[in-house]
Amino acid sequence: MTPPNAQATLAQALASAVEALREVSSTPRLDAEILLAHTLGWSRARVLARLQETIPDDALQTFRALVERRAAREPVAYLTGRKEFYGLEFVVDRRVLVPRPETEALVDAALEWARQHYSPHDTLLIADIGTGSGCIAIVLARHLPNAVVYATDLSPDALAVARQNAELHGVAERITLLCGDLLAPLPQAVDLAVSNPPYTILNEIDAGVRLHEPHLALDGGSDGLAVYRRLLATAPQALRPGGALMLEIGATQAEAVTALARQAFPAAAVHMLRDLAGWDRVVVVNVER
Ligand code: GLN
Hints:
This protein is α/β, with parallel strands linked by helices. It contains 11 helices and 9 strands.
């Protein structure tokens, strides 16, 4: 134990943080390193190279306060205000869901579809439904320079974060942010609609997620499927012939969402893709020409 007034080294500060986080996090050491690096304004590599140096008192206070918040299950991304997604860094706070690595599977599917169906010279109309931080819409806009992107969200607070991220990544002029419910605010039908809608059953998810992240982005109703039903009810009018709809799903929802998609689009080809961890993750609807 470090006596209260003795100078702590970075190594000691990290060790007590790891102890404090062991019960709430599956990655206590990583969390502690990220929070210490954030506190000092350093990279993690620099922290790890200087473990035997002493930590200034004010930094130690700041670090301990962050560790305390993490111990109350607040996501690391809200504590640092940043989250990496598909190679870009996004501003995040409690107004938006933290981007998840599994959602990169949805982006992969969308980019692959765009490569197969559109030449870089065609204008491609894309809609991201329930955009949150804007991470999906922004990555698509960055990778598809000729895409015109609509991004909708019911939450004006989320759209403010999405706007900040679109500006940060230089695509604000190609993304139109629209406030409203699901597909309703779209001014015209699109070629490609993507969505990571709320699909969880709130009382079944991780307590930290439920305590700190926006329920509007998570709550899929009593069976987790409520938003898919509403979205699929109007999706046929929102897509151009030959277009595609891609929906992120929870790992156990493949059968149910595939069935709902087939009801909504009886003539379309519907298939399912997995994420890098091998879980069912994206339902793809290829609309007939
Ligand atoms: N993947 C998120 C989670 O498990 C849920 C995201 C969503 O509902 N779209 O917490």
